[in-house]
Amino acid sequence: MQRLRVRYAKRGRLRFTSHRDISRAVERAVRRAGIPVAYSAGFSPHPKISYAGAAPTGVASEAEYLEIGVTTPCEPERIRGDLDGSLPPGLDVLDVVEAGPGGLAERLEASEWEVRLPGADRELAGVAVEKFLSAGAVEVERLTKKGPRRFDAREAVLRLAVSEGTGRTAAQVPGQSCVILRMVVRHMTPAVRPDDVLAGLRLVADFAPPVPPEVTRLAQGPLDVGTGALADPFDLDRETTRGGEAGPVGEHVAG
Amino acid sequence: MPVESIFHRLEALLPKVQKPIQYVGGELNSTVKDWDDADVRWALMYPDAYEVGLPNQGVAILYEILNELPATLAERTYAVWPDLEALMRAEGVPQFTVDAHRPVRAFDVFGVSFSTELGYTNMLTALDLAGIPMLAVERGDDDPIVLAGGHAAFNPEPIADFLDAAVLGDGEQIAIAITEVVREWKAEGRPGGRDELLMRLAESGGVYVPKFYDVDYHPDGRIKRVAPNRADVPWRVHKHTVMDLDEWPYPKKPLVPLAETVHERFSVEIFRGCTRGCRFCQAGMITRPVRERSITTIGAMVDNGIKESGFNEVGLLSLSSADHSEIADVAKGLADRYEGTNTSLSLPSTRVDAFNIDLANEFSRNGRRSGLTFAPEGGSERMRKVINKMVTEEDLIRTVTTAYSQGWRQVKLYFMCGLPTETDEDVLGIADLAKKVIKAGREITGSRDIRCTVSIGGFVPKPHTPFQWAGQADHETVDRRLKALRDSLRGDKEFGRAIGYRYHDGKPSIVEGLLSRGDRRVGAVIRAVWEDGGRFDGWSEHFSYQRWMAAAEKAGVDVDWYTTREREENEVLPWDHLDAGLDREWLWQDWQEAVSGGEVEDCRWTPCYDCGVCPTMGTEIQVGPTGRKLLPLTVV
């Protein structure tokens, strides 16, 4: 069975899809596109599609990953086009490669996030980031299904920088400025998410954005611990399979 | 005047609400048209949550048909949950469509499809959020025409004050006709304003405009007379019937939601109407006659629908799907076509007497073998005679045990409680029936691993049925019988654990009864309930019986008078001026027959018994067989 690895984006209003919504949409798109997906055996067969670390509901992403098992070999670039054409605009397929050796999930060691905070105080954001980075640990609390849970949000953060831009966010008045946080966060257990980092900034410097943040995952992949840079997780697959042309790499602008 | 999307304002609220995806639109096959390219614009609402409203066939069909018309656009809107409603009020965000997020008030027609009366309060929320005055008389020329359709619109009197108009019956052709009337009126420069537009609609006889009718009452509260208050407005408004369903093969572009909805499948209506003559069934009475879609059209629609949607389940819908004259060929043909593709077929609404195991096997061939559901409705043979749902105990047990022997493990049985003439014994008969089913099932399979679930709810007498005169059972009686049935099932050592029991208590049925057979005076109750926070009355976690009773008392409305009171033959009923085609004398005679135990056959297979519909409406029964078969699809 050939396995295809897919990088896709969830953009704009489709960032409000939950993981379950996406898996239903992908299943249907696979059927519409006529991709020869393999099914599990048994009483109630399921298509063999697996997902690696989905971004939370409400968070946009340029770097989500899934894997499809197919019964007959497929040309990755053709699958990219067909699957993209069958998904609603906003769920966009960016790159498809034939799976090489090794699991995909293990390669996704860290994520790079962009957090837009329209109307937030630029100066205070800078102070908060500095305090956060210089702290040894920042204990935050998150409400999970099992109740409140306390954990350190600091250790996982490898890079965190503040900049400013004019926004294009939902809540923003045109022309109003917008604080932008960029961070590289290592995947750990429990997972530290951008909202946990925001909770940390609130704790250390009482930094609280006036409206809900607009969060985008920019990249996921193998981590260079020294520089905090992320590599393309498909590099290994391309080296071994010659299957796919290199797709778009680097950053994508959320639409 | 340019109409702008409110999405940017809504978007800021979405991170704070449950399941935000339901508000963003962007479904596969949805349509967004340029506002200025259309001169007639419809906002279509299903007045319940998105997850219930999106799969609704009526709205989906009208959405597609209207968007196919030149210079016409249609968008959809659904009830927003209270969490978003509160935020929209705080931020001044109006009721919006999910397609292009345009404010509902900017449209020409606001069409609301009511499958059930329990959506009335949700319509009021939508009107209020839209900034449309709640009372029709307070609306101006900038407000849309608020139009009701769907089965509940066959008695729109309780919401008459909030509606500008209502249509009865099949919506396809009348929606187009209304569009053209609106287009012409706008092109002429809106002569006479809103009033003249409504007049033009009313004169046609196909659109009911409540304000052109006056209702007079007797001192004792009964209706004395309903009469038009303008010349040229007809005394009665007639329902619409689409003949030849093959000419209307919708949906062609099924909406595929991102959010999870209650029916995740592609649905094809295989016929419309039902003449089985079940006396409680409003749907069967008001959708006559039976009009089948041909096997070849069904095949083509399924093929196209699966390709367009990517759904892995196909539902063949109708009021009694196994009654299609070529259902066996449809089932076999489709099962052959989709062999090995993991596409499952489902057949909701199957009568016990029309069911056969070959059919069920075809339906489960390519997919999951889900449970089987039958609806004997009445627990005793006597009761089933009263409601004219003639299923013998033998039939039922034979059918169910065959299903068990063929590998089905779970059978669901639907019943009603509080039917006319019902006694405690009739309801306890359900327990006997369920036990016999399990006993026979165990014998034939030699296994104890079989189950049956009894599901039961309160009966609500509906307009345009032989039971429209009946006194509804009070909720105390219904609840007492439901409890006795539960005790009888649970207390049984031998079978109790093999029988599941689900029930709806009697109180919501009383409110449904009030709204079903209510008149214009009930509108004040709906309004008061809404003002007191009433929303989503079809959801048990939101429904409050106390709220409804308090509102009725405040409005001076005697709930018993509307629900448990039996009506006399010549009492003017609130919906008598709305014509479903049924001969009133025939309905009354059928009501008398019900009490005396007389049965009516199905006119598809026996001579006409003069219910009145076909001659009044100029329609006829359209059934096969066509003799055609579904050929294998050539793989592209």
Describe the protein's topology.
The complex is a heterodimer of chains A (255) and B (636).
Chain A: E1 2-10, H1 19-32, E2 49-52, E3 60-70, H2 76-86, E4 91-98, E5 110-118, H3 122-134, E6 139-144, E7 147-152, E8 157-166, E9 177-186, H4 194-205, E10 214-221, E11 223-224, E12 229-230, H5 235-241
Parallel strand pairs in A: 3-10
Antiparallel strand pairs in A: 1-3, 1-4, 2-3, 5-9, 5-10, 6-7, 8-9, 11-12
Chain B: H1 7-11, E1 40-46, H2 50-53, H3 57-68, E2 72-78, H4 82-91, E3 109-113, H5 120-130, E4 145-149, E5 165-166, H6 172-187, H7 193-203, E6 213-217, E7 223-228, E8 237-238, E9 266-269, E10 271-272, H8 282-286, E11 291-292, H9 295-309, E12 313-317, H10 327-337, E13 344-346, H11 357-363, E14 372-377, H12 381-386, H13 393-405, E15 410-417, H14 424-445, E16 451-458, H15 475-490, E17 499-503, H16 507-516, H17 523-531, H18 545-555, H19 559-563, E18 578-579, H20 584-596, H21 613-617
